[in-house]
Design goal:
disordered N terminus; globular; Spore Coat Polysaccharide Biosynthesis Protein SpsA, Chain A; 5-stranded parallel sheet; alpha/beta; nucleotidyltransferase; 7-stranded mixed sheet; 28% strand; UDP N-Acetylglucosamine Acyltransferase, domain 1
């Protein structure tokens, strides 16, 4: 299997994620452009995974509120997708909400699929945070002669994490026999990553069939309905996975990165995670500052106490402030002697002098964008 085969895939990033449980952060932006891990956005991970596998032609299908997403991805330069031939294309969902209907929106843009020269398709969401080598999944798919290969992760914490995610029921040969939903009852589950590898002509056929019969308004539901007639097999991913489909999982995913092992698994030189670069000066720490076990992006001014936090760019934490177990997004100001615990402060929030804010443990209090207390 040569490199030319790996370039024979069309990447489709389907931003159909249901953000009902994280609306505090998605009211003015798509989930894909929500900041993550200090200096990244949610979409950076799937974009990087695709380009690291040699995929040169990627289409992003997004709903409304896409200004922040467009500003972030721009012409695709950070992912080496700024090119005359192929590169990065963005399609806005128009009449239909992709949470309930993505098939019609794919049908409206069939020319993109038909005129693309690639033979295979990788269909994926943005909210599955991981660093995956798609090349291994490609090799598995091409050798196995499957109609569709579905990626999944076997977990033993499904009673607490990955709630509302699809669950694959797999037989002893790895074939997907049915798909359920994780309601948090069982600890062990095969969590579907909603990443599908298939031939492009089959993908187009699924779109046509869904429109013709009216039975399926979601492309993944079309796949699930044909488990008896199509060879749908599973491919297991063994690395770190976080599904950002709720405020709880967003908070936990960021806090996970304070674990050195998980951080090294997600961010490593062999498969870098790329993002839009910002020309920021290094963060300044004064003699009064005290920082432990935290991720702090560039451009910050730290004068207070920071513990177990993820801090984005251009955050000002003033003298005497105490910030613990928090996620602070860009351009926030924490006033002198303020105390914050278990808080997610969205972009541009201002916490005045001596303010004391504490959220419930493991379920943070959210300060929405540009909050002024």
């Amino acid at each position: 299997m040569g490199v030319h085969i790996l370039k024979n895939y069309l990447g489709i990033i389907n931003l159909d994620e249901n953000d009902d449980k994280i609306t505090e952060l998605t009211r003015t932006r798509p989930l894909a452009s929500v900041p993550f891990a200090g200096r990244y956005r949610v979409i950076d991970f799937i974009l990087s995974n695709m380009t690291n596998a040699g995929i040169e032609n990627i289409g992003i299908f997004t709903k409304n509120k896409s200004r922040s997403l467009m500003d972030h991805i721009s012409n695709g330069r950070p992912w080496d997708l700024h090119r005359k031939r192929y590169g990065l294309r963005v399609f806005n969902f128009a009449d239909e909400d992709p949470v309930y209907d993505d098939v019609h929106n794919f049908a409206d843009n069939l020319e993109f699929f038909q005129y693309s020269k690639q033979e295979y398709v990788i269909l994926a969401p943005s909210y599955m945070i991981c660093n995956i080598d798609f090349r291994e999944a490609m090799k598995f798919h091409e050798k196995s002669n499957n109609d569709i290969t579905v990626l999944y992760k076997k977990v033993n914490n499904a009673d607490k994490s990955f709630i509302d995610c699809d669950v694959l029921n797999i037989n002893e040969y790895g074939r997907v026999v049915s798909v359920g939903e994780n309601i948090g009852y069982d600890k062990e589950a095969n969590i579907c990553m909603e990443m599908f590898l298939l031939r492009k002509d089959l993908f187009i056929e699924l779109i046509y069939d869904s429109i013709k019969t009216g039975r399926n308004r979601k492309i993944k539901k079309s796949i699930y309905r044909q488990l008896d007639t199509l060879r749908v097999y599973s491919y297991e991913f063994n690395g770190y996975l976080c599904c950002v489909n709720s405020l709880h999982s967003y908070y936990k995913g960021n806090m996970d990165l304070l674990n050195v092992r998980i951080n090294a698994e997600l961010f490593h030189d062999n498969a870098p995670i790329y993002t839009k670069s910002k020309d920021e000066s290094p963060t300044k720490y004064t003699k009064d500052s005290e920082v432990t076990n935290s991720i702090i992006a560039n451009g910050c001014y730290i004068e207070g106490h920071v513990e177990n936090c993820v801090i984005s760019r251009r955050v000002n934490i003033n003298k005497g402030a105490y910030v613990k177990d928090c996620i602070i997004l860009q351009n926030c100001i924490i006033g002198p002697n303020a105390k914050l615990m278990n808080i997610v402060a969205d972009k541009g929030s201002y916490i005045p002098k001596s303010q004391d804010l504490r959220g419930p443990e493991k379920f943070p209090l959210v300060l929405e964008k540009q909050s002024l207390l």
